[in-house]
Amino acid sequence: MTDALKQPRAWSQEKEKILLGPYDYMYGHPGKDIRSQMIASFNVWLKVPDESLSVITKVVGMLHTASLLVDDVEDNSELRRGVPVAHNIFGTAQTINSANYVYFCALQELLKLQNPSLIEIYTEELLNLHRGQGMDLFWRDTLTCPNEDDYLEMVGNKTGGLFRLAVKLMQAESQTQMDCVPLVNNLGLIFQILDDYKNLSDTTYTANKGLCEDLTEGKFSFPVIHSIRTEPDNLVMLNILKQKTRDEEVKRYAMAYMERTGSFRYTRNILRELTEKAFVLLDELENGREKADGIRKIVEKMSVEEPVNGTDLSSAAPGAESLSPGS
């Protein structure tokens, strides 16, 4: 009993493996790892020391994977990267604990670099991440459709937060004085809006996450917000979100409805505007500096074609042709 009152004993690898079970499961099914690609690409300019860059890359990867574990719980998701979500295998409580544990493991990694500003950056962006997620969940759970500006603010906090965290940590460890944050903020918007768009219109997403999973989650994504606000007196989309439907016919009807309100076209146009802005910001940062071909390739990969899956969504559901066209 006396030993139990002393400082905790050395933590065993066996127990560590238990705690990290859900995290390791998700880590074992990697995504496209665009964040690591982005870190490597920005380092053409920032030239962060190898040790620091290794820690930053590791920390961002840890946070991203841990945040996905929590996202899947909060969204009641069933698939992630084409496999069952972690909480359906390990349980909700263990998955949340694993994700929270990794947040602090990541902080512990940053402490190795002995730079107090890194801790400030980490804290600020983790707060932003939770602020963005909190608003996203509030809108979903109260069936409150945000306006576009509020949505973009949320995306800047939630999705943009990890992009921004990576680059701000790099800037804090770099001898090069330059501000990459505006470009990173822009890339965060492109990344999330493109994700929203593909979730509702791309057959690849159907294989990895299920058909129009955002509708099953009841999520106010970018095309959905536009569709609802284009025809505010028509409650079709609000009611579909309210149902959190798994019915594929209802989902296809919703896709057709959004096509008829011009919401997919509007989203493509916004993505093109953001992409053009990204190239302008990129040109400004490259002026007098080494060319950042890696960043340029990332932006090019995020370009959107018209339409994504080569189908006419306006004819995807019966009755859709009776809807009035939007903007």
TrEMBL record:
Location of region: Disordered: 307-327
Residue ranges crossing the lipid bilayer per the database entry: none
Record-linked PANTHER family: GERANYLGERANYL PYROPHOSPHATE SYNTHASE (PTHR12001:SF44)
Pfam families: polyprenyl_synt (PF00348)
InterPro entries reported for this sequence: Isoprenoid_synthase_dom_sf (IPR008949), Polyprenyl_synt (IPR000092), Polyprenyl_synt_CS (IPR033749)
Protein name stated in the entry: Geranylgeranyl diphosphate synthase 1
One GO molecular-function entry: metal ion binding
Provenance organism: Myriangium duriaei CBS 260.36
GO terms, biological process: alcohol biosynthetic process; isoprenoid biosynthetic process; mycotoxin biosynthetic process
Swiss-Prot/TrEMBL keywords: Magnesium, Metal-binding, Transferase
Family affiliation: Belongs to the FPP/GGPP synthase family.
Highest taxon of source: Eukaryota
